[in-house]
Amino acid sequence: MALDFTRDIYSISRLTSEVRAVLDGSFPLLWVRGEISNLAQPASGHIYFSLKDEASQVRCAMFRAKRLLLGFRPENGQQVLARARVTLYEPRGDFQLVVEHLEPGGEGALRLELERLKRRLAAEGLFAEAAKRPLPAFPRQVGLITSPSGAAVHDLLTVLGRRCPAMPVLIYPAQVQGAGAAATLIQALAAANRRAECDVLILARGGGSIEDLAAFNDEALARAIRASAIPVVTGVGHEIDVTIADLAADRRGATPSAAAELVAPAAVHLAQRVAALQARLLHLEGRVLDGANQRLAAVLRQLALLHPAARLERRAQRLDELERRLAETMSRRLSAARSRLEPRRIALLAVSPERRLERAAAGLNDLVRRLRWVQSRALASWHERLGRAITGLDARSPLATLARGYAIVTRLPDGVILRDPDQAPPGTRIAARLAAGTLHARVEAPEPAAAVLPRPAARNRRDNTRGDDPVDA
């Protein structure tokens, strides 16, 4: 096959490269509006999505460095404004936009700005629960800040009339939608505080879009609500609508009717409350009377206690009590002293001379008894021996011999017993003692004695072991 050098044939790479160069050089940074679809967020931190409208779509890429600068989180279906460069992704040959900046478009932008304002005011403490005031249980008059021609005022009056027909209602007219609406709401709120005619205020309007509720998302209105001296209840839009005014108010009603329910006490509830208060009043009255009777009884008892006779009785009773305590104390102390003294007394008695004398006297008495016993035994023994001795002496006594007719002759005047006639020469005076008396005579002539047999030697009888003297037999 022959080569044709007259034709300029592009490779795919060359084509895509030149197309990219044309696109990059032909379009400056431009703004594009569209809806996000096919959103992808890989781990790299870049995001890839498509922007579309009713007829077309284009691929978009936003790299991580730019994505980190976003003040919101992109989502599928979200309308956005993108500032982007037109380029070509060469590997696939896809026409795409490289997004440098992205922001919500239309209502999304409004909501994003609203969220930012909410976060800022919350950080300031404007929505803090601690700063919110309690609502009066029974307001004397309720103020309505709303449009007098709107549907919200009809709902408010209907609910308030049904729940508490006797409660007066005062309307402070204000514009609730459109340019200048926030300023009229602030003016009505200021007038209500200046006139101080109501105990609670209801700030309300019916439902609508986010643009319709813009006045209730105003920062100045939120600050005016917090600065109000009168508690403020909001009832704005539908249940799903939560405005900045709702967050700043003391209480939020999901709807205008709900706000009226919060403020007005129900008539049946009032009747129940009155009945409860009446019962409580009667109960308190009974308690007060009981307390008064108890105090009166206490005063009477106090008067009785202050009577002189009662004081004397108490003093006498006190004296008796003190005497009893004194006696008990003395008894305890004496008992304690006796307890301490008894061992010492026993110890002293053990070493007392009196006890020693008593023991010595007891020993002496015992010795005396023993001595007397021994003495009596000895005397009895001696009497017995004496009797035997007397009997022996009587048997050997000279008097007994005399009684047999013998006599004891003594020489006078020296009284020498005469045994030999030679001892009494003639003329010697003698005395002869007889058994019954004594004869005095004078020797005329001695006569020698006749021869007699020799007299046997006297036998000496040894006495018993008692040591008696020997006696001639």
What does this protein look like?
This protein has 473 residues and is α/β, with parallel strands linked by helices. Among the domains are: 12-105, Nucleic acid-binding proteins (OB fold (Dihydrolipoamide Acetyltransferase, E2P), Beta Barrel); 135-265, Rossmann fold (3-Layer(aba) Sandwich), CATH 3.40.50.2300; 398-473, no CATH class. It is 47% helix and 18% strand. The strands form three sheets. A five-stranded mixed β-barrel has the order 1-2-3-5-4. The protein has a five-stranded parallel beta sheet with strand order 7-6-8-9-10. Mean pLDDT is 82; it is low at 458-473.
Number of helices: 12
Question: What shape does the CA trace take?
Answer: elongated
CATH architecture of the domain at 135-265: 3-Layer(aba) Sandwich
Q: Mean of the pLDDT scores?
A: 82
**What's the CATH topology label of the domain at 135-265?**
Rossmann fold
Instruction: State the low-pLDDT regions, or none.
Output: 458-473
CATH class of the domain at 135-265: Alpha Beta
Secondary-structure content class:
alpha/beta
Largest sheet composition: 5 strands, mixed, barrel
DSSP strand content: 15-25%
Number of strands: 14
In the sheet with the most strands, the strands line up as: 1-2-3-5-4
- Radius of gyration, rounded? 79 Å
CATH superfamily of the domain at 135-265: Response regulator
Listing every helix as H and every strand as E from the N terminus to the C terminus, the arrangement reads: HEEEHEEHEHEHEHEHEHHHHHEEEE
User: What distance lies between the first and last C-alpha atoms, to the nearest angstrom?
Assistant: 213 Å
